[in-house]
Structure formats: structure tokens, C-alpha cells
């Protein structure tokens, strides 16, 4: 058997599906978990929706740029909830002290990551889809009206959320649950720099190059271009995709290195604070 054949045999879609089924049962068995997925996106959308409604009545620009705040909130939730959905599924294993058992099983690290990525999409759709319907009903904002651009936005935001989620999971794996706060807070560190609610030109000149290093910046700029200028710039999405490829590769590499370190130091069996 060649090395290439061994690698092909090593990957098992059934193991990925088994992990997804495990997380689905955990999610389905707890109604508070399901409610939480919808609760926070709903609160944010309604809050910012009414803020925008007020601003539209008072400012001509926002009347022309109607939907930018609600659109930004919904796209931000895709980014934040995508990363959080990935991290929470991982933390379920840490909280149940099951991570050592998984790493000693035939489950490969990439299969584990792929299952977490798939579950982050499931959790995100449960939370965000109902909120997009509420945005349409309350504020007449149709996110799906963005058409193909929405697919490009969604794909790029999910890639970023997975890259961050993978790396954060590696840090928690290596340092224990004392580092789990990173899963809840790290995206908010990037929030001002990704220019969720304002254009990049709002930032100081010396900060603007840093903003353009982050893939979500291109998505939020693209969203504003569609809603304000009614133009879609594919270059923004391709630039975001190229940066996302680098971020994702770096996140996966960091996770594997941190996993190796956790195995070497015995941290896999010491998942406390």
C-alpha cells in the first residue's frame, strides 16, 4: 500500500458524521441551547433595527443607505456565531472531559475539525435564519435580496470564523479551560478593525492598512457598496478569499502544533482551569 493510499484510507467521512451526530444530539436535547442560538441575534437585530429606523428619520444619508446597520448586524452575527458555534462544540468535549478519549480514538484531527466546522454551520443556520425573517417582517430588510453576493459574503465570513475557532480551540487544548474566555471575546477584539458599522476611511490613516489585512473588512465594505452604491465588486471577495486561505492554513497549522504540545506535556488529560 502506497503512502498516498494510506492517507486516503486514514480519512473517514463516517467518523466525521458520527461526531456531527454527537453534537446534534447534545444540541437537540437542551432547549436552552436552542433558544440561545436565536435569542442574541434577535436582540441585536431588533436593537440596531430601531436605531437605524430613528436615524433614517433624522438623516438624509441613512435614508439613502437604508439597511446598512441591519445588514452589518446580520453579517457580524454570521462571523461571530460561526466562530462561537465552532468553539462551543469543541468546549463541549472539554467540559465533559472527553477530549483525551477522542484524541486516543481512531478519529483524526482533521476529521474532528471538519465535524466542528459542519456543526458551526448547523448552529448558525438555526440562529440566523429566523432572525433574517424577523428583519424582513419588522424592518422590510431582505438579506437574501443581496443574491450571489450573500453567498460570497457568507463563505468568506465562515472561513474567517473557522480559522479563528480552530486556533482558539488549540489554545484551549494546550492551556486548559482557563483560556476558554478567548472563545467568547476574541472576535470583539477584531470588531473595530473590521469596520462592521462604518467604512475603513473612518479609521485613523495609520490603522487602515491593518484593517485591510483582515478578510471580514472586505465583506463589510462590499455590503455597504451594494446597499449604498448598488454595485458589487468581485475583487473585494477574491481578496478576502486569498487572505482567508492564509488565515485558515495558519489556524490549522497552529492547532496541530498546539495539539502536539498538549500530547507531549500531558495537557490532554488535564482539562481543568
- The ordered H/E elements are HHHHHHHHHHHH
Q: What portion of the residues fall into strands of 2 or more residues?
A: under 5%
Helix content: over 70%
Large-scale geometry: globular
Structural class: mainly alpha
Please identify the oligomeric state.
Answer: single chain
Largest sheet: none
What is the CA-atom radius of gyration, in angstroms? 20 Å
- Provide the residue-averaged pLDDT: 81
Alpha-carbon distance between the termini? 44 Å
Number of helical stretches of at least 4 residues: 12
Give the number of domains: 1
Q: How many β-strand runs?
A: 0
Spans of at least 5 consecutive residues with low confidence = 3-8
Summarize the structure.
This protein has 273 residues and is mainly α. 77% of the residues lie in helices and 0% in strands.
Any chance you could write out the topology, listing elements then pairs?
Blueprint: H1 3-10, H2 13-28, H3 31-58, H4 60-64, H5 68-95, H6 99-104, H7 109-139, H8 148-175, H9 181-190, H10 208-211, H11 215-229, H12 234-265
Helix pairs in contact: 2-7, 3-5, 3-7, 5-7, 5-8, 5-9, 5-11, 8-9, 8-11, 8-12, 11-12
Tell me about this structure:
The protein has 273 residues and is mainly alpha-helical. It contains twelve helices and no strands. The protein has helices at 3-10, 13-28, 31-58, 60-64, 68-95, 99-104, 109-139, 148-175, 181-190, 208-211, 215-229, 234-265. Helix 5 packs parallel to helix 8 (148-175), helix 8 (148-175) packs across helix 9 and helix 11 (215-229) runs antiparallel to helix 12. The protein is globular. Residues 3-8 have low confidence and may be disordered.
